[in-house]
Amino acid sequence: MTEASNDSTSATTFNGQPIAIVEREGVRYTLLGTAHVSHASVDAVRAAIDGGTFDQVAIELDTQRLQALTHPEALAKLDLIKVLREGKTALFAANLALAGYQRRLAEKLGIEPGAELKVAAVEAEARQLPLHLIDRDVGITFRRAMRSLGWWGRAKISAGLVAGMVTGEEVDEAEIERLKEGDILESAFGEFASQTPALYETIIAERDRYMAARLRATTAGATHVLAVVGAGHLHGLAKHLREETAAPAGIIEQLDFVPKKSSIPWFTLAITTLVVASFAYGFWHGGRDLGTALIVQWVLFTGGLGALGCLLAGGHPLSIVTAFVAAPLKPFHPGVPAGTFSALVEARIRKPTYGDFLDLRDDVQSVGGWYRNRVARVLVNFMLTNLGTAIGVWIGGARILSKLLA
Description:
The chain is of the alpha/beta class. The chain has helices at residues 39-50, 63-70, 80-85, 89-109, 115-126, 138-147, 151-166, 173-181, 184-188, 191-195, 197-218, 231-243, 248-256, 266-312, 317-326, 338-349, 354-363, 367-372, 374-405; strands spanning 2-3, 13-14, 17-24, 27-34, 56-59, 131-133, 224-230. Strands 1, 2, 3, 4, 5, 6 and 7 form a 7-stranded mixed β-sheet that branches. A hairpin with a 2-residue loop joins strand 3 (17-24) and strand 4. Helix 15 runs antiparallel to helix 16 (338-349). The longest helix is centred in the last third of the chain and has 47 residues, at 266-312.
């Protein structure tokens, strides 16, 4: 194994874009570092592939992100009911936040973020060159990132993503500079990514190692591979490609793994136990009147606030009734948010149209668009019903406790 570049990747450039060249196991890898919002990067990618010296091309994308770039109309084929049933609503909302952020960038800069990656895919297909998608699935990266944070970190990220979906806030110059030197996912998570070691490790460092392993695993038989990646990944990717000794399959399996939550929902079980014990104690200590009063308090606060959240989301009357019924039972169906039930009813009664899916990326740029678009309104239903239920659980629990201690 030999290395054909020094450690300073910026010392070598192609059409003004930094490159690193690594030779390993008979394959020559040319790593082209790009800015995801640069016309110069688009031109450099096109010129590199037009040069005709590469027999394979790899790009910093996964299947989902490539489809979003090359076939944006595919969103219209999404099965929203399936998304809700499989518990992927939060991930879908995060993808919408990312899409909204990219749209604002495109409007400000006059170029679609990731345009150079799209050009690489199109040019490779036109020349019948094998194309390799070497980035990790964005859903896995998102879930691993969230699992690496404490509850406060997850709350800050979630709030930021929600804000990104409902505001048309201008993209500032600092964000643009980060994109020129870094990575679109890091920029989308904001300054919190660079200030949080665990998040940086998941979003940047892990993906450097992952992409190096994918290159080694998928380019067997190649002689000269062009890998188009964000400039922020160039140094780390070259280092792992040059120095990594572990088998690529093992690395990929390790970095694709998302630790599952405990199979025993201890927190939910504790709440369920406390609620049931409170009802039982109320009946035993104060008789039927107190026991019934405690149950009524619980239902009114959890069901009432869950239904209020659904109402504020513009939910159909049957969705509101579903929220009222599902919210008090939240402790008894662990792992299934109360908002899932009302959102499912909303999606079935007010079934989104093909046009709703086509207009989704534009509609989520404004608060009014969220209520006008039936797909977006299902997501608002899900979020606000869950928020109302959570508030109701704490208020209802506190009221029950105060009655028992009175």
